[in-house]
Write a structure and sequence with these properties.
- With 386 residues, this protein is an alpha/beta fold.
- Helices cover 46% and strands 9% of the residues.
- The protein contains 18 helices and 8 strands.
């Protein structure tokens, strides 16, 4: 085929124009991608925190499979009986549940030991919130800061291949299982009755929810420092939070038993808590709206951007249960947004602890498991307290 001069000059020109347009289009796409990347990179920590809170607050509670089986079979297991029910057999008898559940519990026992070893060997870090405030609030800075709290390259599930952890609005936690504290009390009661090694915390996840404006708050209802001698569970808990950089700005301790403030501040309270500790030597009230009801007068003064931990153990079911039910009912819809962790010693008819609790009990093991499950479903990560 012959081309005249017009054909020979037009076709190369058209090809060049098409080539140029293609390169310009590609350049525009690349520029757009770069702009999107930098937009994401400069999203503030406040935006990230909002997204996390909105996303995980609305996410359905996901119990581990063993927990799900037990809570679904309370009558079959005898956990709804009103007498002091023994529960340790689920850990030792494969016929108590199913072979699959029993094997899961056996595997979980190994996992929780591994977790505690990793936590024990974890090198303490300085205040996380101070780092967040000082080093900036971009995505990269926050990721780097919070990644320093990762205990395993594959996250919490990398430590627990049994997959028995439960997932809450504050990340992974231990499954809700009887005997409502360490399973080791089934074999060595006196050694492990006050042990807190059954608790699991996802500090990496909780760090990602913090903002530069977050306040760290601990509310202790039942702050009897001398009750357990030198082994103070609340000090042990605070120390673990501090090890992972969660240093509380405000600690409120309510205690009904009269104590000399000199004894509290000079003998019982560690020195580094002096600047943050508020000793309130009166009993709490379960009356809604009462100024001595800390859920009303203290918790509601904070907001969902703050990191708030609540512990309840006053050995008085007539006051404890109404307070817990207020959390569960959550009329104003604020408790599930504000409270990040909740610890409660629920005194029920549990055979393994009948010697300790004696007559200060109300309810069954099954009712307790359902109560804690419903709190977690409500968005309040609840833990049994020793």
């Amino acid at each position: 085929m012959r081309f005249d001069r017009k054909d020979r000059t037009t076709k190369p020109c058209n090809a060049w124009v098409a080539w140029t347009r293609g390169r310009i289009l590609l350049l525009l796409v690349l520029l757009s991608a770069v702009m999107i990347y930098h937009t994401i990179a400069f999203v503030t920590m406040n935006d990230i925190g909002d997204n996390l809170r909105l996303g995980w607050h609305n996410r359905e509670y996901q119990p581990g499979s063993a927990e799900h089986y037990i809570v679904s079979n309370l009558d079959r297991l005898g956990f709804n009986k009103p007498e002091n029910t023994d529960t340790c057999h689920i850990w030792s008898d494969p016929n108590a549940t199913t072979l699959e559940v029993f094997n899961s519990l056996v595997a979980y026992k190994n996992d929780i030991d591994k977790y505690n070893e990793i936590v024990m060997n974890f090198k303490p870090v300085p205040s996380i919130i101070d780092k967040i405030r000082q080093e900036g609030c971009g995505v990269e800075e926050k990721t780097r800061i919070c990644d320093s709290l990762r205990l395993h390259r594959n996250g919490m599930q990398g430590i627990f291949p049994s997959k028995q952890l439960s997932f809450t609005s504050s990340g992974y936690v231990e499954p809700l299982l009887p005997p409502m504290r360490s399973h080791k009390i089934c074999d060595y009661f006196n050694t492990h009755v006050m042990s807190m090694e059954y608790l699991v915390h996802d500090f990496h996840f909780m760090c990602r929810k913090l903002k530069p404006t977050s306040r760290l708050v601990f509310l202790d209802m039942g702050a009897a420092f001398d009750y357990h001698g030198t082994n103070q569970p609340v000090v042990t808990l605070l120390s673990q939070y501090e090890k992972f950089g969660f240093v509380f700005d405000h600690i409120y301790g309510f205690e009904a038993k009269g104590k000399n403030p000199v004894d509290v501040y000079e003998q019982s309270l560690p020195e580094h808590y002096i600047s943050s500790y508020h000793w309130i030597n009166v009993g709490v009230s379960a009356k809604e709206g009462d100024k001595l009801n800390p859920l009303h007068s203290i918790i509601k003064k904070f907001n969902e951007d703050d990191f708030v931990v609540v512990k309840l153990d006053i050995d008085t079911p007539s006051i404890e249960l109404p307070l817990v039910l207020q959390l569960l009912e959550d009329k104003d819809g604020v408790y599930s947004k504000i409270i990040d962790q909740f610890y409660f010693e629920h005194h029920v008819h549990l055979g393994e602890l009948k010697r300790n609790w004696k007559r200060k009990v109300n309810g069954t093991v099954g009712e307790s498991l359902e109560l804690f499950t419903n709190l977690r479903k409500r968005g309040i990560p609840a833990h049994f307290w020793p």
